[in-house]
Structures are given as structure tokens and as C-alpha cells.
Design brief:
The relative contact order is 0.10. This protein is 44% helix and 13% strand. The strands form three sheets. Strands 1-2-3-4-5-6-7-8 form an eight-stranded parallel beta barrel, surrounded by four helices. A hairpin with a 2-residue loop joins strand 10 (397-400) and strand 11 (403-406). The chain has 432 residues and is of the alpha/beta class. The longest helix is centred in the last third of the chain and has 22 residues, at 338-359. The N and C termini lie far apart (73 Å). Helix 3 packs across helix 4, helix 7 packs across helix 8 (268-276) and helix 13 (338-359) packs parallel to helix 16. The protein folds into two domains: 6-276, TIM Barrel, CATH 3.20.20.80; 300-430, no CATH class.
């Protein structure tokens, strides 16, 4: 146990789980990208988390068996995970082992136990969670690999919980860690190595990217994979990427992330563009969807085009708008991200009216700024974020002792590119 270098994807978001067909399709694609693991852990599968003690019915188990076989054919281990932490009790060790034994009977050779996103506790809770894992490992015997997620998975220090948790685990059990925060803007190998050394085992990096659930759900994460130091892969036992509920749209980030973890010396922007080339038609939306925590602004090229438009040269911005956002997109991908395609069209309609006024302010008179304002209002009405972030709340946290605190920077608010362009046009029009 514990010798594999993991390059995995985890279905671990909050929201509707993937269909079986989507899961199989994604696993087959992951195999072409060098991934070696797929973890089944959707938070909103009741039998995974809320009602974890209940057995899966036979029809679901048949799908698990098929999934494991598809994974092996693609060169991936399918990790079947149970999340018992919402109501874990001292007498639950047998129930946990029974649940995991069923996964093993369905062919899984890598098993997962997740205690994430449950009420925190100190050393007593850490010891209780570790005891349950140790009992399951002992009951199932050899021949399995184990991946776990503790309650204190986001930390830059050893908490009382983590000390008891790690001290109670058998050797070789992998422990996930998301960095100093739940979503960590920057993670270095030095951080991972220091914490792993103190805890006595290398950490398995749980990458909360490109996931976009909860109050960050309006932001479609299609930008470059960034914020990870080149020394991070060597300081960990690998990575699992928590992807979005949009499996086809997640491929861009997964492909770019896999490239980094195989060779962390590459240029993130160049890698992103190479991966983008494998997704026909996606570039217009991807350029509008680069925002992430710590990098909230619009695409630099589009920002330059907007600035040029305000300086009298609207051609670059109009060329981008005129090219549209749907041409060349795979139909299944287009259907998956349709809300963002429609929002792109609403945002760029406002931009188009703004460029029309900029080109011929005298021709449009007072009708021009009114048209800009109306289109701009419709674009601003949506929760979906493009061309920069107007509003999103990321799970950005820090430790104060053993307590986890939300940081002020978690709330991202501001003006996107549409706002800046339209506001400037309306201001100029009001001055005559």
C-alpha cells in the first residue's frame, strides 16, 4: 500500500451525480490523458453519505461492477468511497466494514473513507475516525489500497484532530489534503513536505479545481491550471482533481492539470492553449471563463481589446464578438454548458451596442446609451459569471489554532469587462 503515484479525478462535488453513461465516458477519456484513478464520491448520492449504512441495491452494484471493469480497461483504478462522518458513532465500525466489503465484492481494489465536511472535533474525534478506518483495513485484509479524507483536510499545521487521526491509521493509508485552505490559491511543495513530515507520511493532494459547487457555482472554471509550485508533485503522493458537475467542460482543466503533475516545469499558459486546441470551438467561452480565486479579472487579451475600443479601435473586440461562441462545439458539450453560452451572448450583445455607439456616437444620439443600458441590465441579471467575476464566494479559509475561519478574500465582488465597457460608454454619452 502507498507506493502508487496517483493521478486521479474525483466525483466529489455537491450537486446531481453524473449518470452512469457520463461516468463511463469520462473514465475512458481520462485513460487517454494518463490518469490512473477515478474516485466515486458524489456528496449528493444518499447511500454514499446521508444514508451511508444502507446497502446499495443490486442494480446499483451491477453498475459499480461495470464501472470497475471500464476503469481497468482504461488503465484506471476505480476507487469506491463511503462518507460516514455526518453521524459517525462508536458502534459504526462494523457497518463501515460491511459497506466496504460490498465494494470489494464488486471488484474495487482501492477503497475510500471520507470524513470531510462534517462538524469538526479534536483529538477524540480524530482517534475515533482513525479507529474506524483501521478496523476496516484489518477486517478486509491485504490486497487493497486505501484512500482517506480527514475532517481537517484544509490546514497549514498539525491540529489535535490530525495528530490523533494520523497516529491511529495503519501504514500505507493515503490521506488527502487540499493545502492551507479548502480552495487554496497557492500551494507549494514546501507546505506539503513540512506538514507530511510532521504527520509521518506524504500527503495526497486533493485539488479543489475545477470544481465550482456552492456559492462559487456561477463561475465556470475553464482557465489555465495555476497557483501550484513546481516542487509540489514531488512532495506528495499524487493528486486527485475534484471536477465540476459538467464532465465534458471539466476536461480542459483536467488535461492541463495532468500535464502539470506529469511535468511541472511547463508554462501554464502554453499548456492551457495546447489543451484548448483539443476542444474544438471552446476557445471563445474559455477566454471569457478564466476567472478563479486570486485571478478574478477578465482575459488579458480581451481586456486589451476593450481598452482599444474605448480608445477608438473597436475592430479587435468586434472580431471576437462576431466570431460567436457556438461554432464548432461538440453538441454534447454545448448542451452541457448552454446556460453559459446564452450568458456569453447576453454579455456580448451589450458590448456590441457599446461598440456601435463608440464607432458612431453622433448617429445614435440618446438611443445609443439607452440600448447599451438595457442590454447591460439583462446581462447583469444572471448569476453566471463571465469576463471576470461580479460576485462569487469561494471556500477560502485559514486556521486559528484548531479552528477554521473564513477569510474576507473569500468574497469576490467587482465589475466585469461588460460593466467597465458599458459604464464608460454611458458616462461619455451623458457628457455629450
Amino acid at each position: 500500500m502507498g507506493e502508487r503515484r496517483w493521478l486521479g479525478a474525483v466525483e466529489g462535488y455537491y450537486g446531481p451525480p453524473l449518470s452512469h453513461e457520463e461516468r463511463v465516458e469520462l473514465i475512458r477519456w481520462l485513460g487517454t490523458q494518463g490518469f490512473n484513478a477515478y474516485a466515486y464520491a458524489p456528496k449528493d448520492d444518499p447511500l454514499h453519505r446521508e444514508r451511508w449504512r444502507e446497502p446499495y441495491p443490486e442494480d446499483r452494484r451491477a453498475l459499480f461492477r461495470e464501472l470497475v471493469a471500464e476503469g481497468r480497461a482504461a488503465g484506471l483504478e476505480v476507487v469506491l468511497v463511503v462518507s460516514p462522518g455526518l453521524d459517525w458513532g462508536d458502534d459504526d465500525e462494523a457497518a463501515l466494514a460491511v459497506k466496504l466489503e460490498a465494494f470489494a465484492e464488486d471488484g474495487a481494489q482501492t477503497l475510500g473513507i471520507a470524513f470531510d465536511d462534517v462538524p469538526p472535533g479534536g483529538a477524540q474525534l480524530g482517534a475515533a475516525h482513525a479507529s474506524g478506518i483501521a478496523a476496516a483495513v484489518g477486517r478486509l485484509g491485504g490486497g487493497f489500497e486505501w484512500i482517506t479524507c480527514p475532517t481537517d483536510y484544509a490546514s497549514d499545521r498539525v491540529t489535535a484532530y490530525l495528530r490523533a487521526y494520523h497516529d491511529g491509521l495503519p501504514d500505507g493509508v493515503e490521506v488527502m489534503w487540499t493545502g492551507p485552505s479548502i480552495v487554496s490559491p497557492r500551494v507549494t511543495g514546501e507546505m506539503a513536505a513540512a506538514l507530511g513530515t510532521e504527520l509521518g507520511r506524504p500527503l495526497l493532494f486533493a485539488e479543489n479545481y475545477p470544481v465550482n459547487d456552492g456559492p462559487m457555482a456561477g463561475v465556470l472554471h475553464l482557465g489555465p491550471y495555476r497557483g501550484r509550485a513546481p516542487d509540489l508533485p514531488a512532495a506528495t503522493s499524487g493528486v486527485f482533481f475534484n471536477f465540476m458537475s459538467f464532465p465534458r467542460a471539466s476536461r480542459l482543466a483536467l488535461a492541463a492539470g495532468a500535464r502539470f503533475w506529469r511535468d511541472p516545469t511547463g508554462d501554464p499558459e502554453a499548456i492551457w492553449r495546447e489543451c484548448l486546441a483539443a476542444s474544438p470551438g471552446l476557445e471563445p467561452l474559455a477566454r471569457a471563463s478564466r476567472s478563479w480565486i486570486g485571478d478574478e479579472g477578465p482575459d488579458a487579451g480581451l481586456a486589451s481589446a476593450a481598452a482599444a475600443a474605448l480608445d477608438g479601435d473597436t475592430a479587435p473586440l468586434k472580431a471576437y464578438i462576431d466570431a460567436g461562441v457556438r461554432d464548432g462545439l461538440e453538441p454534447a458539450l454545448a448542451a452541457e454548458i448552454e446556460p453559459w453560452l446564452a450568458q456569453w451572448e447576453a454579455e456580448t450583445l451589450a458590448m456590441r451596442y457599446a461598440t456601435m455607439w463608440l464607432d458612431e456616437p453622433d448617429r445614435w444620439g440618446v438611443e445609443g446609451p439607452f440600448a447599451v443600458a438595457e442590454a447591460w441590465a439583462r446581462a447583469r441579471h444572471s448569476r453566471l459569471q463571465l469576463f471576470g467575476i461580479r460576485w462569487a464566494y469561494y471556500p477560502l479559509v485559514a486556521r486559528a489554532g484548531d479552528e477554521l475561519l473564513a477569510l474576507p478574500e473569500a468574497l469576490v465582488t467587482g465589475a466585469n469587462l461588460t460593466d467597465l465597457l458599458c459604464a464608460t460608454v454611458i458616462e461619455r454619452a451623458s457628457k455629450g
